Amino acid sequence: MGSKVVSTKLSEEEYGKLVGLCSASGYTISKLLKRAILERMNGEDSQEQVPTPKPVKREEPEVIQTSQVKSTIQTEDKFQYY
Q: How much of the chain is in helix, strand and coil states, percent to nearest 5?
């Protein structure tokens, strides 16, 4: 059984991001794309067997209002003259 080639076109910006991702991960473009495709195909197969959990609805936290106490300092307390 032979290998098949898969290709796509990317904009300059998309290609630049792809090259940066490859550089950061240490993969060639070909190896990174092959790995991503195979992970996606294998992930879809396993997702069909495992039910997706229902999202948990979280209640909004209760907001407790606080009041600030202002401290008053008299002028005489701030400066002491000798």
A: 50, 0, 50
